[in-house]
């Protein structure tokens, strides 16, 4: 039996799962949101253990920081009989967003690894500081267990040079490791492997475009199992329009704001990381709120939606040309899995390229499925991502637990 606690620490959230990797079952699950706000929420659920029904506990309270959030999760989990110690957890796996030039594969966290993750905080300010906090808090509260870091950038380590190179002075790029790294790689790999399995084809024979549309959003082009392009770059700012980030923009805009408009680099970082995307265009906190406002006739929301659709089409078209031929387009993550209307709108111009949705499968189905018309040239799928399961499997491999 191999049991792993997986921790995905966000800037203001904490997601946990205890997974039995031998049977790939989820034994417990927890989510804390709005850490640092006056009132946050916590939900803990115990899985269906040995036939006994799962139980859930929800709490509204202030969680001043990640330590407070994790200790409360452990307390509630203990009440439900789902404390990591009760469940015999042997290792803790962490999602770490930026692996920089040094980390490509999942690794056991040593003091050197921790220092490396800390050095990368500047490049992923929404993510790496929280990831590191998650590692430290978990070590304090659950001493004696090995920790494994799994990097979002790992899967994109093998991008061809043409796709990862910024066309700037090579010496500058080399001195500071400035290149496109790509993120959400754990998800793109998991989802693209599942896509091939659902289609019943060998992974290395399928050309695919994966659209991971969550709070952060990214696209990837995968040719026969190898990522050949992805939309995020040196940082998770580049590419698609996201919840609070703009995706692609002219770097001249940043120079202009700092040099001519009196903004500090810190102001610009806040603008681009927290006050752009859906939030900046329409003051929408998330995609559900955006859609509700579009339906109410809100013009800012309608424009934001159009910008999202336009950008997605541009990436799909670009990746099609990079791949030469596309077998499958797969949607995943919170928005990609749940918003049928966005999937239909984005693909509506691609009928001539052999992309045709089955409206019923798109709108009424749930979970993992093919949503294109039977017999069409290009398969379109929804595949729920499971970064936690992928991280738990990586822990097994790194620590040799399953043997
Ligand atoms: N049923 C739904 N309908 C519309 N949007 C949804 C739905 N469920 C989740 N979302 C959207 O998904 C996004 C969060 O996706 P998720 O993959 O959980 O992001 P992250 O992991 O980055 O926090 C939010 O914009 C949320 O509004
Ligand atoms: C890299 C990234 O943007 O992650 P998330 O979607 O969790 O914010
Ligand atoms: Mg996510």
From TrEMBL:
It holds the Pfam family Acetate_kinase. Homodimer. The gene is ackA. Its EC number is 2.7.2.1. This is Acetate kinase. The keyword Magnesium applies. It comes from Dietzia natronolimnaea. ATP binds at residues 15, 212-216, 286-288, 334-338. Keywords: ATP-binding, Cytoplasm, Kinase, Magnesium, Metal-binding, Nucleotide-binding, Transferase. HAMAP family: Acetate_kinase (MF_00020). Substrate binds at residue 95.
């Amino acid at each position: 039996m191999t049991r792993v606690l997986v921790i995905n620490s966000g800037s203001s959230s904490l997601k946990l799962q205890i997974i039995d990797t031998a049977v790939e079952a989820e034994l417990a699950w927890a989510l804390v949101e709005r850490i640092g706000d006056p009132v946050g929420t916590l939900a803990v659920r115990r899985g269906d253990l040995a036939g006994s029904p799962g139980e859930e506990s929800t709490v509204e309270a202030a969680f001043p920081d990640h330590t407070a959030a994790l200790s409360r999760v452990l307390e509630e989990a203990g009440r439900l009989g789902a404390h990591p110690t009760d469940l015999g957890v042997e290792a803790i796996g962490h999602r770490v967003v930026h692996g920089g030039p040094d980390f490509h594969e999942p690794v056991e966290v040593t003091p050197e690894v921790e220092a490396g993750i800390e050095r990368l905080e500047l490049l992923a300010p929404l993510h790496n500081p929280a990831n590191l906090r998650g590692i430290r808090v978990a070590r304090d509260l659950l001493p004696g267990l090995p920790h494994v870091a799994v990097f979002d950038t790992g899967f994109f380590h093998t991008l061809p040079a043409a796709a990862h190179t910024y066309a700037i002075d090579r010496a500058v790029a080399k001195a500071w490791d400035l290149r496109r790294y790509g993120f959400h790689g754990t998800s793109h790999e998991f989802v693209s492997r599942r896509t091939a399995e659902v289609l019943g084809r060998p992974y290395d024979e399928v050309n695919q475009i994966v659209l991971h549309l969550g709070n952060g959003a990214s696209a990837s082009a995968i040719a026969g199992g190898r990522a050949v392009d992805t939309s995020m770059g040196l940082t998770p700012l580049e590419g698609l329009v996201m919840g609070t980030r703009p995706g692609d923009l002219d770097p001249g805009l940043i120079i202009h704001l700092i040099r001519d408009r009196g903004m500090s680099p810190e102001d610009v970082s806040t603008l681009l990381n927290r006050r752009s995307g859906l939030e900046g265009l329409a003051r929408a906190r998330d995609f559900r709120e955006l859609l509700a406002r579009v339906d109410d006739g809100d013009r800012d929301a309608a424009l934001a939606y159009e910008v999202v659709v336009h950008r997605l089409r541009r990436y799909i078209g670009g990746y099609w040309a990079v791949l030469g031929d596309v077998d499958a387009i797969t949607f995943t993550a919170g928005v990609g899995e749940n918003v049928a209307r966005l999937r239909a709108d984005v693909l509506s111009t691609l009928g001539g390229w052999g992309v045709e949705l089955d409206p019923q499968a798109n709108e009424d189905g749930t979970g993992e499925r093919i949503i294109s018309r039977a017999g069409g040239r290009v398969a379109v799928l929804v595949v729920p991502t499971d970064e936690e399961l992928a991280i738990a499997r990586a822990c097994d491999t790194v620590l040799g637990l399953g043997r």
